Amino acid sequence: MPSSVMSTPNDLRPPAAVSATGLRKSYGDRTVLDGIDLDIPAGSVFALLGPNGAGKTTTVKILSTLIAADGGQARVAGHDLAASPDRVRAAIGVTGQFSAVDGLITGEENMLLMADLHHLSRREGRRVTAGLLERFDLVDAAKKPAQSYSGGMKRRLDIAMTLVGNPRIIFLDEPTTGLDPRSRHNMWQIIRELVSGGVTVFLTTQYLDEADELADRIAVLNGGRIAAEGTAEELKRLVPGGHVRLRFSDPAAYRSATVALREVTGDDEALSLQIPSDGSQRELRSILDWLDSAGIEADELTVHTPDLDDVFFALTGSHRPNQPNQPEEAVR
């Protein structure tokens, strides 16, 4: 199994919002991060996947200055993590696995408290608060205690509070855990809007469809190391099982293709052939060119590629998806 996939040449990629080399972290005799490298372009969504205890939250805590790494170097928003932690903190926002919302005060009061922590004037704090409450559709609930909010509303308020300081980089650690499907999709839309506004999002998640839906690049963390990194499509091509399916309505065309093509699996009843393929443009063109040259016409061509579940299981040795309601870091 390859440990990585081809990356875009550095001179063609946007400047890095987050970069790290050889990050290490241990708790006692347990090595959580064993020298990981990261290079995350500005204005993108980067998703970090991994089983429970893989080190996802530890990575977020290090890059957001909450804990120190044991080794390695990192730059966040252009600032050295070790030398300029205050500048890093001024450029980032963090939404953890567990809500930072104070349920005993109103949503508006939570926002104004965050504005005070960012040293905004009272007038500016109220202006920013009003704008974010409207942006996140929380105006009607603004005067109500936050403990009365639904899970999705609390998560929206959590992110709104994170945006008070106008961060350029946002770390979202399991942002949709425990949300219903509609709230999850609403959160996805919020993330897309943030990125369209130039914000960089570092996302950890155990929902593989979430990473597939949102991330420009994905890294799979396992055993303290990055097992693979690339786009969702690049990662899917790392594991076997991809194929092209040809379906025929003409039995004669089906028989001709069956005889001529090698390494195919035929279904005589469905008049379909399955050809092993990684789904790449080159392979599809080769199959279509062969059909044209042989004078054989298929009625339907479909491409089947492994999904991120297959990638996750292959790279981590997992047998079942992790339960999203379990704490991610077993070592803390």
Automatic annotation (TrEMBL):
The keyword Lipid metabolism does not apply. It comes from the Bacteria. It is a peripheral membrane protein. Pfam families: ABC_tran (PF00005). SMART domains: AAA. Residues 18-248 form the ABC transporter domain. It is found in: Cell membrane. Keywords: Antibiotic resistance, ATP-binding, Cell membrane, Membrane, Nucleotide-binding, Translocase, Transport. The keyword Transport applies. Belongs to the ABC transporter superfamily. Drug exporter-1 (DrugE1) (TC 3.A.1.105) family. PANTHER family: ABC TRANSPORTER ATP-BINDING PROTEIN (PTHR42711), DOXORUBICIN RESISTANCE ATP-BINDING PROTEIN DRRA (PTHR42711:SF19). This is Daunorubicin resistance protein DrrA family ABC transporter ATP-binding protein. The lineage of its organism: Bacteria, Bacillati, Actinomycetota, Actinomycetes, Kitasatosporales.
